[in-house]
Amino acid sequence: MEMIIRRVAMNKQRPYPIFTLFFAMALLFFWGSCSTTQHLPEGEQLYIGISKTRILHEDGSTKGQRALSAAENVIQVPPNNSLFGSARYRWGVPIGLYAYNRYVNDSTRLGKKFFEIFASEPILISTVNPSVRSAIATNILKEHGYFFATVTDSVETLAKDPKKARVHYTIDMDKPFLLDSIAYLPPIALGNGSVLSHQEISGMKSGEQFQLETLLQDRENISNILRDKGFYYYRPDLIYYEADTVKESYKVQIRTKVKDGISPLLLKPWTIEKVIVSIDGHAGEEMTDSVTVGDIIVRYKGKKPAVRTHVLGNRIALKPHTYYSEEAERHTRLALSRLGAFAYTDFQFRPIDSLNQQLALYINTVLDRPWDTAFEGNFKVKSNNFLGPGARLSLSRHNAFRGGETVTAGIFGSYEWQTGRNAFGKGSLFNSYELGADLGLSAPSIFLPFINSSSLAFHTTTDISLRASLLNRARYYRMFSVGASMVYNFEVNSQHHHAVTPISLQFNLLDRGTDIFQQILKENPVLGLSLRSQFIPQLGYTYTYDNTFNHRGKHHVWMEYSFFEAGNLVNALYAIKEPYNKTKKLFGVPFAQYVKGTADLHYTYTINRKQALATRLSTGVIYSFGNMKVAPYSEQFYVGGANSIRAYTVRSIGPGSYRPRESRLAFIDQAGEFKLEANIEWRMRLAGDLHGALFLDAGNVWLIRPDEYRPRGALSEISSVKDFFDQIALGTGLGLRYDLSFFVVRVDVGIGLHLPYDTGKKGYYNIPRFWDAIGYHFAIGYPF
């Protein structure tokens, strides 16, 4: 979601009702006359936040900052009227407390309504309990290896109001303890001739910082490996550790031990003897029929199973007459949940022969509701004075063909009109609308005869979509588009994702163009070629890497690379009878032919618990040849906007040093065939969940071939290294982000520093007027 505001011009002042202002002032005065501590219990004090935490012997390492952040999270309790969740800063007017004290005992309907809407219960010092929080924070630091760390607190009573108090905390981290000698478990026989060596798999290494988390993960790893080898009843809590910190200062010796008196059954591998799946049933519920798939029994109600039996069988990795495996159980749970057919699955393992260590697995499932509806609405305000509503309504059918497939049908539409006055000083009548429908199928498997995707150890899906839309630009043109695509998704793990597009078809028909639009195309024939009716048959591949959620260090990387080609196979077939470079038609219109590659790299360096440096490098190129020398407009690149160079609006820069004519449609041809963009953003926590950012954005787009209608827009027209850097648009700015956990609200103000063309102003800072190069952006989510 994005809202961009460039300039605001007020033609006349809006009348403001004087009684509304009077009422608001009277309400504030009335509440301001109330005490915020009037109804506090006897002997209690109102908690008004904390002072700046005093930190002694701070450890600036990654582990030290993580430990300090965990300790601070315990002591940072937001007070009433907190500023964006901050424990230190508050809003000036505590409306919630005023309303509470004024209406807490009010029995009138209006008073109760005011209390319900505005009141917030006072947060008391006794509720916060600083001494308990200090003890918890101290214990957290010890768990991270800071055994001599202390967290102390003191309560300051305000001299002006003894019923209010502020808390002061002091954190003394001291030095962390390091692991010295480590006594590992003796080798463990796995029953198949192999041996588990604790020392080889352990994350505990001499010289590393002591952390309780490392010990817990160590015994978790031992348990996981043993459970993968059939030791079903083995649990992490069977292992414990003894630590000795006496012999050497700031060193700790570790001894790993197994609890005494453990039942022998816990130390033996178990086999799965039978697997029973109940569809739409609970434990003990009677099923009307059953069928055997391999050695798996499927029980169900009705004439046939709600999910095809071979679909279930292929997703159950725990097979009868094999050793139990925790990895197989995890794979089975994930495969059944990703099937999308079940709202609930329950796994029950029951011993049926303890003497021979045999288990029975009962999988009970409850089907999900078959139908879902969704409605999405939005209202856009753009920098070129366009605004208007949009909406989408969709209907989804789950488990449509008894294989976990989801079929979704949707309709959508939007309407935009241009308000205000344009650059020529005349009102605009440029309105547009878009209407369309789509149909999609998402299946939890790969539709290829030679690949059994259910046997793969990772998640796969096939997405098929059909789409049709009508775009009407009043006074200019109308375009009808029909598209179809198929995408294979391979999610190898949480870091690696592959998407293969074996086919994507797009048919664009420029149905009608007005005389005004035809005149525009005469002035720019290349634009006409990119917008003409055409057929785009393409295929491609995209690879995405993301270590954000798997890497806890200072370095986080996200990257995406893609390669697409269009029309090459079609033109090769046509070339049997016709010249290769001759423009040929398919379904009555020319088909596009090009190769396109993109690369996007994000790197974030965590400075400390409150600061981070985020960077992005993005590039892309599209080269058209053979049947068409100009790439489709929809496939070209552009820069500017809330997620790009934020000082400038979308499509307002480039290509190269080309300066567009003064026109309301100038933005339409400010796209290129080569893109280079770089961004850097310093992010810092300001107060509570409010974050700030200082950023620098640079980039531009260029043409591959020179265009006489867009002079100095091609890469080949760059005369020197200095000329290249002069053609890089540069902008800076600052922003605010409010983190609501489930999404981030962002406001950015971009300031232009350099335009890539001659503005008539000398020097690198060539912005003619400062206020003309400021962009205001309201968006959801981070820009990168």
Number of strands: 34
Give the N-terminus to C-terminus distance in angstroms.
14 Å
The amount of beta strand, in percent, is: 35-45%
Major pleated sheet: 17 strands, antiparallel
Name the average pLDDT.
87
Radius of gyration: 33 Å
Q: What gross morphology would you assign?
A: globular
Structural class computed from helices and strand pairing: alpha+beta
Percent helix, as a range, is 10-25%
Runs with pLDDT <50, length 5+?
1-17, 19-25, 420-429
The tally of helices reads: 14
Description of the structure:
With 784 residues, the protein is an alpha+beta fold. Among the domains are: 37-172, no CATH class; 178-267, Ubiquitin-like (UB roll), CATH 3.10.20; 271-367, membrane protein fhac (Ubiquitin-like (UB roll), Roll). It has a 17-stranded antiparallel sheet. Helix 3 runs antiparallel to helix 4 (109-118) and helix 11 crosses helix 12. The model is unreliable at 1-17, 19-25 and 420-429 (pLDDT under 50).
